[in-house]
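Sat 14:20. Reprocessing the chain from the morning session after the first attempt stalled halfway. Input below, unchanged.
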Amino acid sequence: MKKKLILDVDTGVDDAQAIMVALAAPNVEVLGITCCHGNTPLENVLKNTLRVLKVCNRLDIPVYRGCAEPMLARKRHAGDYHGKDGLGDVPDPDAPGLELLQQKKAVQAMIQIVKENPGEVTLVATAPLTNLAVAAQLDPSFPKKLKALYIMGGNTESRGNTTVCGEFNFVADPEAAYVVLDRYTCPTYIATWEFTCRNSLPWSFCEQWLAQKTEKAAFMKKISYLSMTKAQSAEYQKEIIAGKGFNSCDTYALAAAIDDKFITESEEVAVTVELEGTYTRGMMALDYMELLKKKHKAVIMKKVDLEKFKQMFMNSLK
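Finished this time. Tokens:
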């Protein structure tokens, strides 16, 4: 039985890497890709997702238009890292047109796909969590019908990459993150900012990965040039924790969803999101003292099998 996935993305460079890893995994069926505002405005996310599917020869996978803005927060994007267009600002005259998108909207599609496959679908969320929060509001039974939820977002040590204490996906829509961590009681796995930094890929491996003589590798090399250059700058190296390599944040959540043995060390703890702090709005809070009295705990990833990760990366560009 193949694992059934829905990918909820804001396609920047690391979402593109995650999508390509998913498509290369023999044990995975991607039932649909839902798009959300985030790294770049929604129109770009839609175009970028179709570009990635085209280079993988998988335009048969349905792509859905999701939320263009957060529930309450002001819009923010990550153009300085991913490029204004989200994929390294490399022109692509042959990019597929948006007429290829499904007519159905992302949230409705999510609800319907899961309703048709109850208990079988794993949702991998690598964007701000707006689509997921709206889905839970429209259909309160939706989270219970999922097999599992894997999130890239939040942080465990109040180390920010967007605000003083906040990780981008949670800061981009703190209310949505709060709703999701409160209402999604299916098994939930979180790849946080600090965790991804500590498990980064060596630069020497990245060279080998991108040196493969394939169309996919040429595409990846082009779109990741800007973010890799930024990631090697002294200014960025200060931001990341124990970082000596390339951090493809979103791909950790995806890798954990497709391989049960990928996570080698984790902890279970109830989590929530701060909505009101001057410096801490959007920060994930871990309830070690169990003061929140939450029955549902999330699995926080600590360590992963980096050799498996490298193999997934190599396979994704073959």
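The first strand starts at residue 3 and ends at 9.
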